[in-house]
Every structure is written in C-alpha cells, then in structure tokens.
Amino acid sequence: MNTIRLGELNVNRLGFGAMRIIDNDDIWGEPSDRKHAIKVLRRAAELGVNFIDTAESYGPHTDEILIAEALHPYPKGLVVATKCGLSRPRPSRWDADCRPEKLRKDLEGSLKRLRLDRIDLYQLHTVDSKVPFEVSVGTLADMQREGKVRHVGLSNVTVKQIEAARKIVPIVSVQNRYSLSDRSSEAVLLHCEKHGIAFLPWYPLGDGAALSVSKVKKLAEKLKASPAQVAIAWLLKKSPVMLPIPGTGNLAHLEENVAAAKLELSNEDFRSL
Q1: Which end of the chain is more exposed for a tag (fewer CB within 10 A), N or C?
Q2: DSSP string, 162-222
C-alpha cells in the first residue's frame, strides 16, 4: 500500500472512516451489534489500515470509546484522527459550535475517551458563522503549543479559509466532501496538491451514489472488481495527496474497500470516468 505524509507522520494511503460503525442514520448512540463493531475496527488494523478518522460528535462520544476499546494500546504507527466543533443536542442535529471553550472541552473529552496524551491529527469539523474563524483556528494552534495536539487539520472549508488558517498554524490535512459523483471541492483539492496538504474525501463513495454510475459499473465488470473498488481506485489515482477514508460497519465491505488499494486503473480507464 502506498503511503502519504501528514506532517512528520507517514500513513498508508487508504484509511478508515469510523463513523459508520454506528450503524444508524443519525450516527447516534450505540451500534446495533457492539461486538461486531469492535471486530470491524480490529480487522481494519489487521489489514494494514493505520489511519482511522473519527469525531467526538459521532455518537456523540461512542465512536471514540469503541476505537479505544478495540485497539488500545494502539499498534505502533497507528494514527487516530478526531474532530471538534459540532454540537449534538439531539439525534437529527449537527450544529456548529466552534467557541474556544467548546473546542477545549471537546479536546479534553477526546483525549480521555481515546486514552491518549496527545491527538496526532486534530481537525476543526466545520466553520461556525457565529465565531470568527481565526479565533477557532487560533484555539487549535494553542492546543498544539500546549502539546495536546500534534497536527492540525480542517474540514468543510474553502480555499480562502485554508489560506487564512495557514497564517495561524501549519495545516497538514483538509477533509471535504468529494467523490466520483461529487467534485464540488475540486478547487480545494488542487490547492491542497499545490501545497502538499493531504486531502481526505468524506463520503468517498458519494453516499453510494458513485456506485450506481453506469460507467463505474461497466468498468467494475471489465476489471472483475466491485463498483466501490473502482470508485476508491479512481480517487487514489486522481491525486497524490488523496487519502480516502471509506467507512463501513460491515466486515465484508471493509475487506472489499481495503483491497481497492491494489486496484490500478489505466490512464484510459481513469479518463473514462
């Protein structure tokens, strides 16, 4: 598996998005089968995945607790990235809350739940219109200076916001929605490429939409692969800074997704998509 750099960290270019181990639409509460969720996390590590992405808002808190239960003490080289800045007053709500006091509370909670002294990659989950962006990013910079955060990342941002953040603290990753079927963050991806910032596409399978594209299905048939594997292989070929994090709560899907790292698309097949 090829690798990618996150600051001084080196991780395999196919990560695991842990959100979906909570297998309900609202990502709320416990997974339907806790033992199975633990198995999925452990199997991801066994398959060579050494980058796991989560957030304190998944559950809320449940996702981080499960990761620690499944994998702590963490295997050498495993990077667990988490996110801050969302409030979950009830299952259907994902409210931006990037006030410094909320971000600090999120960090202390994540450190405790993940059983860590320092988060390797701490990401601002969203931009809060009620809080100056520079204040939120500045709080993460302070956390880094305090030694509680190794690297800082952003999520759901524009090029302008990345540039503003980089004046405050080094940014090693950006996580925006991106897939074969949703390329609205193309400008952000190109900006990351130019500056050597890892780009983590969330919903890398387009919430399933990318898998129903007829060209994807035809190519999957031709390559004796699954549509999901083709969609992931396309992302890996699209840019050297791409770090896909497909998520699932299903063991078979996990194995299928990880195997996509070995699928190489020809230039012709890539262009056809």
Answers
A1: N
A2: HHHHHTTS-EEEEEEE-BTTB-TTHHHHHHHHHHT-EEEEESTTGGGGGGG-HHHHHHHHH
Residue 115: is it exposed, middle or buried by C-beta count within 10 angstroms (0-12/13-18/19+)? middle
Pair 71, 78: CB distance under 8 Å: yes
Structure tokens at 117: 């002294």
Rounded-to-integer distance, Cα 192 and Cα 200, Å: 10
Question: Which residue, chain included where needed, has tokens 């992302």?
Answer: 235
Q: Which domains does the chain have, with CATH numbers?
A: 3-206+240-249 (3.20.20.100)
Determine whether 74 is an active site residue: no
What DSSP character marks residue 28? B
Which candidate in 58, 122, 178, 203 is catalytic? 58
Please give the Cα distance from 236 to 12 (Å, whole number).
11
pTM to 2 decimal places: 0.97
**Model confidence pLDDT, tens digit, residues 190-228:** 999 999 999 999 999 887 888 888 999 999 999 999 999
Residue 17 and residue 139: Cα distance in Å, rounded? 25
Radius of gyration of the chain, Cα coordinates, nearest whole angstrom? 18
Grouping H, G, I as helix, E, B as strand and the rest as coil, residue 134 is helix
Residues 25-46, buried b or exposed e (16+ Cβ, 10 A)? eebbeebeeeeebbebbebbbe
